[in-house]
Amino acid sequence: MPTTIRRLTPADAAAHRALMLEAYERHPDAFTSSTSERARLPVSWWAERLPPGEDADSVVIGAFDEEGGLIGAAGLNVEGRIKSRHKATLFGMYVAPAARSLGLGRQLVDAILATARARAGLRVVQLTVTQGNDAAQGLYERCGFSSFGVEPMAVFVEGRFHGKVHMWCDLRP
Ligand SMILES: CC(C)(COP(=O)(O)OP(=O)(O)OC[C@H]1O[C@@H](n2cnc3c(N)ncnc32)[C@H](O)[C@@H]1OP(=O)(O)O)[C@@H](O)C(=O)NCCC(=O)NCCS
Q: Which of 20, 52, 75, 90 shows a CA-CA span of 20 to 30 A to 33?
């Protein structure tokens, strides 16, 4: 499946919103955000998470199919405070079911890490993944992330608690 990987701009806000609402709906265990909370927010809220500029605190990379449809995304949020500016968080990782196991997830994580490496002063990327989400955790491990702990009872979804595995990647090889 030929795809284009590029950074999202505010013009992609509606497509990103639709993709992530699908993600929250299909995989309630995998995301801390829930469909009902996020569906209430206007497209302008999503556009604010896609600010332009090289030093933006939030960057989202998207994967597009041949027709220009958004089929995957992953985001990077850089810490703002002086003492933690060397850290960023990978968030909102999702590939639409029809496009899975084709390496798009790998391309998105690699693009996020390349973006992080290009930012002066950034040294660490962190993320959390729900315990038992082996496809996602395995992908992160192959991309260079290591787990450093499990947060017990991190999310409560449909009457069940789930732990979150905390992972990190040192950007300096
Ligand atoms: C996790 C996710 C982003 C991966 O996307 P993808 O495009 O399928 O990823 P890739 O094709 O690059 O890689 C998938 C890899 O996982 C492997 N895999 C698939 N299911 C697996 C499982 N249950 N356990 C271990 N590995 C698995 C595949 O074999 C493939 O490995 P390979 O790269 O060695 O061939 C996608 O499955 C997804 O969107 N899941 C639902 C949302 C989610 O869990 N997001 C992560 C939140 S932290």
A: 52
